[in-house]
Each structure stands twice: as structure tokens, then as C-alpha cells.
Write a structure and sequence with these properties.
By secondary structure, the chain is mostly helical. It has 5 helices and no strands. Helices cover 67% and strands 0% of the residues.
Length: 132
Amino acid sequence: MSRSPYDSPNPHRLYRNPQRGYMAGVCAGIGDYFGVDPFLVRLATVIGAMFFFPFVLVGYIIAALALPSRPPQLYRTPDEETFWRTVATKPDRSLAGLAQRFRDFEKRVAGLEAYVSSKDYELNKAFRDLER
């Protein structure tokens, strides 16, 4: 199977969730995607159907046919799920966190370079050599 260059390793996508759904799992899938209780999505769908029945019905049928079913083991661990949800919903926060980690790493490497190139390092090395 050939993968598109636009495919992402991120498993956090919009799926139908028939295991938690009543009909086709569309509302449960939308609830999973946005991190909302599926009951609230169902309630919004019913309220929307009161005013825009044909549009909601057609939209639901299209979503039921177009959305893939959610795989049983979408995430390996809860930490992985948290990571991918954060990346998908708040990419700027994820990028800022990654940038902060690189800044911290750069500071640690700079401190290590300063220590290794200092006279203290050579003095400590000489004492270690004397102890042998």
C-alpha cells in the first residue's frame, strides 16, 4: 500500500465510533475527536434537527458513509493519546513546548561545554588521575 506524502503519523482523526454510538457512531466519533461527551453532541444534533431536519439528516448520512470506523487500538498508551490530542488541538502550544525543550537542552549543553573547557575540569581530572 502506497502512502501519500501528506499522510501524518498522527492517529487523532475524525472517525465514526460504532462501539460507543447508537446508530452509526457519528456523534460518538465527533465527541471523541473534540473531547466532548457524546451525549452533548447527540443533544446538539437533535436540537439542530428540530430546526434544520433535512440538512442534519443528509449531513449525518454523508458522515456515516464517508467517515472510517475507529480502529479498536488507536493509541498504544494513554500518554500517547494525550500527546496526539494536544498536537491536533493546540499545535502552537506543542511547538512552543518543543522550542522550550530545545532551549533548555541548549543551556545544558552550553553549561557542559563551559565546564569541560574550564580549568576546574582539568583540575578535577588531575585529582581523579591521582586517586588511581
